[in-house]
Design a protein that fits this description.
By secondary structure, the chain is an alpha/beta fold. It contains 24 helices and 22 strands. Helix 6 runs parallel beside helix 10, helix 15 runs parallel beside helix 17 and helix 23 (644-653) packs antiparallel against helix 24. The protein is elongated, with a radius of gyration of 29 Å.
Length: 670
């Protein structure tokens, strides 16, 4: 493996500027190649000290250019090209060409030179052998990956140990008031990439994902509660030197969450978690943790404006040292789609192809940067120097071994998994409402459950379906009632006993469903029937007593109430009993006077900014008409007033002009 180092005694440190004024690089290559050196003396380079200072503030400069004119992509690339030319010509000299196409390069610098190490050396532009003028190509787009924070000889650690399964924890957090991220798409793509990669390599894997309500406390508890994680992946917004997480869900009010109330889930600001606190929250994973991914936030660099009076150090560099693991991070902010593409390719390389981490990172960078559908393709230099890699073990880290123990993994609730509605596609995540509902239905929540309520079409069932799938994958089994339309009906044998089968929306139908899913309940129900008509409340509570691990989802409760007057006392009993399941109810009304102990979470119409992804994915005909400034389409949009269900209805009507006109007339009259 190639090593690029600056040894103790081979640099002169400028304490006033916080950077060296002279240093000597040593390049050691494998295979008996001669050791090469290059000395840099800034006092002999015209403008050398200023050039190094400008490189130090390059992140701040890029930020200023983006703020001044977000569309001036050429201006950003020109700034980076000037930096890349200096890094190659003066900063590395002749070593730049020697570093091209050598694979992974371990950077070993003394701790005093952490700021020099953090500069974007992979941006150094290397030209080919041609005599004709041509632009240089960054080292990162050659077959070269620089690995920072290598403090000792890499141990060649592997992430998969014979007889143990690969364990991956992925957490997704979107703080209120920050720019939107499509966390659901990111989560689904990452989970699919990990499972597909491990299946292709015949490596058993357990993937746990956590979304909604991921604040500092949830982060620490999730990392620590289940112990040994090989990989931790965190997707969120970040600032140089820290993460922006959702606020902790403690102390939520029991009253309804409304757009005009100050008691919104998560409060009015995100939790800013610095490097030291992130390290403390992740400390329980130290020991087995091999890889930490922070690929959707500004975690691999630090803005000099935010580090006044102290040495610059990135979040990723700090965590690599504290947790003794490899860290993949981003020097600059990236778009959500770039991060999704990058992460999927990274795990495909690590697990599907079995490559070492540096090779997988190179593959992920090329895959994302070359995607014609991503705006980052117009910024090849910025993309090239954005992903960064830290950690002593990172140069040799692998996560796939053929001798890993195979066999099924007993995920929570797997044997009890009942039919759930298909998750909506697409899904416009309501992060604050989902976080509140998830906190209320978690085993450690202060509430017994929640009521998701809103007008028809606002998505209470869709939100409940997403939460149910997350809960079943992450925590414990879920019982969804009434059963989804695609699932076969459940009968209690009433016809054979001379009674008509119970209607599925009645409490008796619910009891039949319980007996089908929980066979131990059948004796309780039979005993109740032997006494005549079942006592539904007592029978249901008796069946569900001692099952706090179960999540009970009752969909469309306002319609259930019209079917059977026994529902209100049953809901009161379940909500008031400590050792029965958590409850998640959906309704078009707030269910006043019923199970008041349950948290009310109100769904409001979506604001225009949140409707854009839904229109693009689920209402393409209507979106095309809106883009064409079609007056009839804008009438339909105004009538929908932020209601996703109505917008999808209008899109179906938009197949024929007359149908859309009729839709506008009918709903406009309403």
């Amino acid at each position: 493996m190639t090593v690029l180092s600056i040894r103790q005694g081979q640099f002169v440190y400028d304490g006033e500027r916080g950077l060296p004024s002279a240093w000597t690089w040593t390049l050691e290559r494998p295979g008996g190649a001669p050791v090469l050196t290059h000395t840099v003396r800034l006092d002999r380079i015209p403008g050398g000290r200023q050039a190094l200072a400008d490189l130090r503030r390059l992140p701040q400069r890029i930020r200023e250019l983006r703020a001044r004119n977000p569309d001036d992509l050429d201006g950003i690339e020109d700034e980076l090209r000037r930096a890349g030319e200096w890094l190659a010509g003066e900063g590395l000299g002749g070593l730049a060409k020697e570093l091209a196409d050598v694979g992974e390069v371990a950077m070993r610098l003394p701790p005093e030179l952490a700021e020099l190490e953090a500069l974007p050396w992979e941006l150094a532009l290397v030209r080919g052998e041609s005599l004709t003028p041509e632009p240089g190509v960054p080292l990162a787009l050659h077959r070269t990956t620089l690995v920072r924070g290598v403090r000792a000889s890499p141990r060649g650690r592997t992430g998969a140990v014979a007889g143990r399964r690969l364990r991956v924890l992925a957490l997704f957090s979107l703080a209120e008031g920050t720019l939107p991220l499509d966390l659901t798409a990111h989560r689904d793509a990452l989970r699919a990439a990990v499972l597909a990669g491990t299946a292709g390599r015949e490596v058993a894997a357990h993937v746990r994902t956590l979304q909604f309500g991921v604040g500092p406390t949830a982060l620490g508890e999730t990392v620590g509660e289940d112990g040994d994680w090989d990989v931790v992946h965190i997707v969120c917004h970040g600032l140089p030197g820290g993460l922006l997480l959702e606020r902790d869900q403690t102390g939520l009010s029991k009253r309804a969450l409304r757009e005009d109330e100050g008691d919104r889930s998560g409060g009015g600001s995100p939790s800013v978690v610095g490097a030291g606190e992130v390290g403390r929250l992740l400390a329980a994973a130290r020991g087995r943790l091999k890889l930490l991914c922070l690929t959707a936030c500004w975690s691999g660099g630090e803005d000099p404006a935010r580090s006044t009076g102290r040495p610059m150090t990135s979040l990723a560099a700090t965590l690599a040292d504290e947790l003794d693991c490899a860290v993949v991070a981003m020097r600059f902010p990236v778009g959500n789609d770039f991060a999704v593409r990058f992460d999927a390719a990274l795990y495909q390389g690590l697990l599907g192809k079995g490559w070492p981490l540096p090779a997988a990172l190179r593959y992920a960078l090329r895959t994302a940067a070359d995607d014609p559908d991503l705006p980052e393709r117009a910024l090849p230099l910025l993309s090239a120097c954005t992903p960064v890699l830290f950690g002593t073990d990172a140069p040799c880290l692998t996560l796939a071994q053929e001798d890993l123990l195979l066999g099924p993994f007993d995920a929570p609730g797997l044997n009890m998994a009942g039919p759930l509605p298909d998750p909506p596609e697409p899904f416009v995540a309501r992060e604050q409402e989902m976080s509140a509902a998830r906190a209320a239905t978690s085993p450690s929540g202060a509430s017994r459950g929640a009521v998701l309520h809103g007008a028809a079409g606002l998505g209470s069932t869709s939100c409940a379906a997403v939460l149910a799938h997350r809960h079943q994958q992450e925590i414990s089994p879920v019982l969804w009632h009434p059963r989804p339309e695609w699932a076969p009906p459940v009968h209690d044998g009433g016809a054979a006993a001379g009674r008509p089968p119970a209607h599925p929306h009645s409490v008796d139908g619910f009891l039949a469903h319980l007996a089908h899913r929980l066979p131990a309940c059948e004796d309780t129900l039979d005993a109740a029937r032997e006494e005549g008509r079942p006592a539904p409340v007592e029978a249901a509570v008796g069946c569900l007593a001692g099952r706090p691990d179960l999540l009970l989802v009752l969909d469309g409760v306002d319609r259930l109430l019209r079917q059977d007057p026994c529902w209100p006392p049953l809901l009161e009993a379940l909500a008031g009993t400590a050792d029965t399941p958590r409850i998640l109810l959906t309704s078009r009304t707030e269910l006043p006077g019923i199970a008041a102990s349950l948290l009310r979470v109100r769904l409001e119409p979506l604001p225009p900014a949140r409707l854009l992804p839904l229109l693009t994915a689920a209402a393409p005909r209507l979106r095309a008409l809106l883009d064409g400034n079609d007056e009839l389409a804008w009438c339909a949009y105004d009538i929908a007033a932020g209601n996703p269900g109505l917008l999808v209805e209008a899109d179906r009507a938009a197949i024929r002009r007359q149908d859309l006109r009729n839709w506008v007339r009918i709903h406009g009259d309403d």
